[in-house]
Amino acid sequence: MDIMVGQALFLFVCFILSCFLIISTTRSRRRSLGATVTPPGPPRLPIIGNMHLVGMNPHRSFADLSKTYGPVMSLKLGFLNSVVISSPEAARVVLRTHDQLLSSRSSNNSIRSINHEELSVVWLPSSSARWRLLRKLSATQVFSPQRLEATKDLRVKKMKELVSFMSESSEREEAVDISRASFITTLNIISNILFSVDLGSYDSKKFNEFQDMVIGVMEAVGNPDAANYFPFLRFLDLHGNSKKMRDSCESLLKVFHGFIEAKIGEKSVRSNPKDVVDALLDLTKGDEAELNTNDIEHFILDLFTAGTDTSSSTVEWAMTELLRNPKTMTKTQAEIDRVIGQNGVVQESDISELPYLQAVVKETFRLHPAAPLLVPRKAESDVQVLGFLVSKDTQVLVNVWAIGRDPSVWENPDRFEPERFLGKEIDVKGRDYELTPFGAGRRICPGLPLAVKTVSHARFASLFL
């Protein structure tokens, strides 16, 4: 009996010492970082944490909360620890100073439902060899200066088709769905760069299933989902996001697979690469092939979903703001008439001669970023942000929507005033942290060069009439 009591006492002492050692080590680690205080945040309810404070537009809810709790704010969303960044200074620390430690991704339930996080340049960890390969391919095969220059005439052609469609609609006195028209234009630009074919049509009589597929993916990723915060609910698919994601992606990948198979057949009789997919297929050959066709299909999935709906929604917001502000619309059109003339031909090189139009583009990105919270990041280890401790595995959200409307950064932040950018060097390339709609650092959107050209040119084409 005494032996059993002694053993129990020994085990209890060992347990206490182990707990003390763990706590001491954790505190020592935090002291070494110079931060022992977690970010402030609202009081939490049992189980759900702060989820009751998040509305249908989380970026707006977080912006309101940050007015009380500051630019580095801690939230508990179910089982998920989150930190929300809402100032340029804090964004600089996350996106530049600690870019490497905060560059992992926090994928959601819909992404995991198709295992896309294992193949996607968006969701793979930046430390992986596969991510580095896909990022390299993005930079060299899709968005390189050489590729953009080589496809310049293609983009001009697609913009002329947009102008022609809008002109014909105007003559018939038919309303134009700007979002749909710009989506089709962007879709055809990307599909021609990749496959050398048009995937969209302006003909309203033709039901465009491809657009519905892409939007289905975007909705599945962006819609609220309890499983993102309570992992044990994943198998229930309460919101139907997993099913929508699987159905939409299955349809998209089937389309891509068909084009790739056709390309493989063409390459048997033609050796020179014609487009991006041709170049990617060259990497599938040999015993040490860097890619397979499944990798290419998921890579293309990233390019379409990230580049089409986001660009069209930005153009739609730009036109909305210009219609709300007739004086700004008049100034923009007057600049176009002065530089191009009313019957001129639209050229990409003209954009550099239109500073007011460029300011309109930046102002739209400021007020209406396509990804208001960017893509969620995850801390790979404990890290300090403006004196606060962000613990390992915490989800980090950069609220670029809130930063773009911060009155301490922008004068009259809720007004659409392109003039604020005239004569200033602020751009969207990830160096000015008050305006980072494409992110910054190693996770900056690789499609930024094409997106800026496409959005600017589409607005130019829309206003040209």
Describe, in plain words, how this protein is organized in 3D.
The chain has 465 residues and is mostly helical. It has one domain: Cytochrome P450 (Cytochrome p450, Orthogonal Bundle), CATH 1.10.630.10. 52% of the residues lie in helices and 6% in strands. It is built from 17 helices and seven strands. The strands form two sheets. The protein has a five-stranded mixed β-sheet with strand order 1-2-7-4-3. A two-stranded antiparallel sheet has the order 5-6. It is globular.
Compose a concise summary of this entry:
With 465 residues, the chain is mainly alpha-helical. The chain has helices spanning 2-33, 58-69, 88-97, 109-112, 129-142, 145-150, 152-171, 178-195, 209-222, 241-267, 276-281, 293-307, 309-324, 326-339, 355-367, 400-403, 448-464, and strands at residues 72-77, 80-85, 104-105, 377-378, 383-385, 388-390, 395-398. The chain is built from 17 helices and 7 strands.
